Amino acid sequence: LFPGVRQAQWLTKTKLVEGLPPAVQGVVDNPAHGLQELEERAKHAVSHARLWDTAEVAPRREQYCPVLFENLIHICRLMSGKYPSLSKRMLARNCRIAATWERESILLQVRGLSGILLNSMTPIPPVASKEEILATKEHVLETFYPIAPTIDLQEVNVYKELNDTGQCFGDGYPYSHPHTLFFLESANVRTNRFRPEQLRAKMLMFAFGNALAKAKALHGNDPKVLEQPVVVQSVGTDGQLFQFMVFQLNTTDLASNDGIKNLVWIDSDRNLYEKAQCVPEVKKRVVTKPAGISGFQPDTFKKFLALYLHGTV
């Protein structure tokens, strides 16, 4: 998506809200949850991924990005001792999603691998009140006239309109609710990675796709305003810079620009740390810069953890 999130908003009939919703930010800010107690573990997780996990002088992004993710997820799981309901989660990989909808007489489909997906036995409660949802009626979606909002989308012949939550959600699967999608942009060559704006657009499209497929599985294919909105979160990272997103599907009536809109909250471009000095810098036999991690940002780690905890605390 060349215009990024702006185009994804039009395609998904979504209003953007900057920052995290109060339900998530409240977890970050509340000292009672003890997130600050895990900061030291998070620093070690970064050091392990960037400095200790390999014998190479400097690990490649394709190696340290997945390692960092696994380390952070492990820290999140430690909270299950305090919040037992966190054990009712399952991390699924290589899940495929297919969701089809109509937008101004244009048939659209999002389809493919939807990152690493955290599933839950119970759905995330709506993060916007009914009043906030009703207020979206007044929101005017941005257009790209005279450019078509579908200008750079791949055009294909669709022989079957699929709405499928994929192989992760077979009949009787207990962890049937999508919770959080994780996208790892771990390509070592910069040109092979999504730029942050395009990554956020991808995150929005796949969060929307998972929410729409789930809503249609629950409520059928008829376009309607949902009595119980579907919430799906998304986190994207290249191993240093993080993008956080909470998407709420309020309606499956997507054809026109009128009426209720969907909502997305985005917290953009948050560094977990400023720099990883893999080898010490030495000048005239004196170490001027020791090896280590500098500029660790505890708030970024807390937001990652808060999204994991959301729906439980």
**Main β sheet profile:** 7 strands, mixed
How much of the sequence is in beta strands? Answer: 25-35%
Low-confidence sequence ranges:
none
Distance between the termini: 35 Å
How are the strands of the biggest sheet laid out side by side? 1-9-8-7-6-5-2
Number of domains: 1
Percent helix, as a range, is: 25-40%
What pattern of helices and strands is seen along the backbone? HEHHHEEEEHEHEEEEEEEH
The helix/strand class is alpha+beta
Number of helices: 7
Number of β-strand runs? 13
What is Rg? 20 Å
- pLDDT average, as an integer? 90
Inertia-based shape = globular
Organism: Platysteira castanea
Protein name: Large ribosomal subunit protein mL37
Subcellular location: Mitochondrion
GO cellular component, one term: ribonucleoprotein complex
What structural keywords apply?
Large ribosomal subunit protein mL37, structural constituent of ribosome, mitochondrion, ribosomal protein, single chain, alpha+beta, 313 residues, transit peptide, seven-stranded mixed sheet
